Structures are given as C-alpha cells and as structure tokens.
Amino acid sequence: MFGDTLELVYGGVATTLNKINQDGYSSEYFLRTSVHEITMCIRHSKTKAAAGKPANDRHNVELTQTIYATPTTVERKRKVYVVIEQTPDDTAILLGQALAIWLEQPAWANALGLMQWQS
After folding, report:
1. Could you give the CA distance from residue 38 to residue 98 in angstroms, rounded to a whole number?
2. In a 10 Å sphere around its CB, with 0-12 CB exposed, 13-18 middle and 19+ buried, how is residue 107 labelled?
3. What pLDDT, on a 0 to 100 scale, did the predictor assign at position 25?
4. Cα four-point dihedral sign 79, 37, 96, 1
5. Taking the chain (119 residues) in consecutive chunks of 10 residues, what is each chunk's mean pLDDT?
6. Which residue range is the domain that position 52 belongs to?
7. Are 64 and 104 members of one domain?
8. What's residue 24's pLDDT?
9. Number of domains in the chain
10. Burial profile 76-102: b = 16 or more Cβ within 10 angstroms, e = fewer
11. pLDDT computed for residue 68 by the predictor
C-alpha cells in the first residue's frame, strides 16, 4: 500500500499530495493551492475471462490538474493516465518502462510530438 502522502515532481518542484480517500482497491490523493488543484487516483480491478482468454489484473493511475481561471486566463483541465493490464502471475514492468522512456526521449520531444498529432 502506498502511504498517506505521495510526492510528485511538477515543474521541477517536489509537490506532496495527501490521501483523501481509500476504499477497497483504490486510493485518491489531492493537493489544492491558490493556482491549481491536482488529483491522483490509483485503482485496481480484474477483467473477466472470455473466449479462451484469462482474466487480467488491471492497474490504473490517473493524474488530473485544474488550473484556476484568472481575470486574464480561462480555467484549464488536464488529464494523463496509464493502464497496466496483464495476467496476475506476470509482474514484468519492462513494457511500462519502455513507454515512459519513449515519451521522454529525446528531451520530451516524443511526448510533444504526440500532442501535435504525430503518429
């Protein structure tokens, strides 16, 4: 189980989110400042076995941010999430690592390209 706080580095600054809810197989963390709020939800579930395919464990992390409106700017909402789905006996993380490394290479150019509709 993760702790009562999670630390993210946002914009080069260590940011601490506090756990505000935990029920069953999920937790929610939250931070509100005068500029924005950040929420991180961690959820776990199982898919159903079907058509000869086994049930999978499904792990989801969702990070959202709301940047508050000011007299000169509109409110902005952002969301990023990742889902890891594989059989319960498979604990390899290499695929997730490969995706994270690809997004940040070179100097986050792949992530920026993605946001510019490159495919």
Report:
1. 26
2. exposed
3. 92
4. negative
5. 94 95 95 97 95 93 98 98 95 93 93 95
6. 5-88
7. no
8. 86
9. 2
10. eeeeeeeebebeeeeeeeeeeeeeeee
11. 98
Considering the domain architecture, whether residues 65 and 95 belong to the same structural domain is answered as no
Distance CA 91, CA 102 (A): 21
Is 94 found in the same domain as 77? no
Pair 98, 44 in one domain: no
Say which amino acid occupies 57.
Answer: D
DSSP β-bridge partners for residue 119: none
- Among all chains, which residue has been given the structure tokens 């005068």? 34
Quick one: which H or E segment has residue 34? none
Chain centroid to CA 110: 18
Confirm if 104 and 111 have CB atoms less than 8 A apart.
Answer: yes
27 with 51, same domain: the answer is yes
Residue 56 to residue 42: CA distance in whole angstroms = 17
Segment (H or E) for 25: none
Burial label for 29, CB within 10 Å (0-12, 13-18, 19+), is: buried
